[in-house]
Amino acid sequence: MKKAFWLAGATILALAQPALAGDTIKIGFVSTFSGPTAVIGNDMRNSFELALDHLGRKMGGKPVEVIYEDDGQKPDVGKQKTEKLIQSDKVDFIVGYIWSNVLLASLKTAVDSKTFLISANAGPSQLAGELCSPYVFSTSWQNDQTPQAVGTYMNQKGVKSVFLIGPNYAAGKDMLAGVKSTFKGQVVGEEYTVWPSQLDFSAELTKAKNSKAESIFVFYPGAAGVQFLNQYAQAGLKGQIPLYTAFTIDELSLPLQKENAIGVPGAQQWVNDLPNPENKKFVEDYRKKYTGLRPTFYGAQSYDAANLINSAVIAVKGDTSKKDEMKAEMEKANFKSVRGPFKYGNNHIPIQNFYLQDVVKDADGQLSLKTVATIVKDDQDRFHDKCPMKK
Amino acid sequence: MLVLVEQSLNGLQFGLLLFLLAAGLTLVFGIMDFVNLAHGSLYMMGAYFAATFVAWTGSFVLGILLALGATLLLGILLEFIALRHLYGRDHLDQVLATFGLILFFNDAVRLIWGPAGLSLPLPAWLTVPVQIVPGVFYPAYRLSIIVVALAVAALLYVVVMRTRIGMLIRAGASNREMIGALGINIKLLFTLVFGLGAALAGLAGLMQAPILTVQIGMGENILILAFVIIVIGGIGSIRGAFLAAIFVGMIDTLGRAFLPDLLRTVLSSAAASTAAPALSSMLIYLLMAIVLVVRPEGLFPAAKR
Fold first, then answer.
1. Domain A145-268's class?
2. ipTM
3. B259 touches chain A (CB under 8 A)
């Protein structure tokens, strides 16, 4: 009798197991955790973990399980990891993606399986336009938007001509096209470099110098940004031809760029000193939890991604099978973003402000980024008309 | 015209830097018949040592000299502890073991210095551009790389061709068993050669460090180029490595500099700017393929075994 009782109990437990597994919110996180750009992936993971701490590691009353996967900055690896997360781990959401080419390679897998994908950085033009999907949201931007803001700022400064340099991959092309779309002066030259292997820009700098352009615009994320600024300064171009940047100076590259970064403007939708309470909490707690480190915009976007997912899960009271309701909730952007309030466009890309950022010495004597002005307000990307989804 | 001068200097500088890396590799490969994939790790260690010592001592020159010594020592230690047990083995075993060393060094660096990378700032006197011909300014630091690398090349030539130890090295490359039989301590000779190769790799790494960042895995991309160079130049030949390195540096830089404009005359601007970087990075491998077909032993092979 006793034996039968135990047996029944064990059976019930065994049966209950799958149901228990369904009681967690499963999130897959694809980013770069190895190689020279692993520092970016670490910052994203740190910020995502911090967001989960702030949420009590629960969403809609259910515990959250995150599976981190390393894409090694390679599109084919990113695609594989995305497939693994969706097909064998059966995640409810998939988040991350630093690189536009990795995201583009992974996109179809997520969309076909109707798994919600939140891009916490990459914003290729295709994603905003013809490849937009009800299951894809962005907590970052469309690639062109940031350089467009830089172009606008250059117009305000009265710059007459520019030489463009960027890496030869999806985002590099978007970035340079972005500046060209708003900059009213003359584009005297445009150079693409092999990505990510080319680290010496001497040939391009020589061409820029000899083009007699009044300014140079570059897009070099990660360590390449450090290398570019080093070489730009060593070539004696600092003070000769002013440099304008997008995604080249951030809290990860700044400690290595040091003085070379002073006086080099950039644009961003989030800066660490934006005066809203959520941002203050994010930045302060980040610096407390990860001593010696400072959050970047990559981290801010990942923090927002966690809160966006949380808003959707709460709206369906933890029942992640209600995809339409979750989609409707996320479209409202009903959470407190660290960049301040924003709206989603028809293509699920934020309509948001872009700020001018500059490098200054802060109270601790360390170099840090500071908001100087608002360049554009409520900016919507220029591909949203190509997206078949209408509001 | 002035642009061409400047771009050629860029090419020369890149080529000479590659020579430093390739010289060590070709010495070890050609003389010891040992495939060392971890050569790129020694390049990385040179850069990390330099960044650390320059920060400690506060002096650029002193820091660099210390780093050079440290890489030499590391090379000798590495040979003594691990690599000398692999000489008799198959090339595949050596590839496997030295690939393991790459992973070991990458993680050792991550443990000691952290994942974020370091920077090696230049002293003020090296950051100013120098006027070389009227109207052409060139970064002083890149100029100093050219000078140092040429000096090292000359020194290597003298040591290998004009000294007793150089004679032994050349003899070792031609017939290892024979010089062993003649009573030369081949073990010591190999340790020295490996140390020298390591120091050259370290020198390349620390000289490249102020231009690039000091980061984990920095030696892996550039090692591929070094292998291309020793294949083009002829394995074991310092002269071959020197000339091939300059070829490769020139082709790479001039390709990047002029190919886009050349392509724009036949293609649309957008297509040209996309195709040019891809094509210019292919040129080097194209050259290697042609050399392998026409002269499989390389352009300037070392003396026959």
1. alpha beta
2. 0.83
3. no
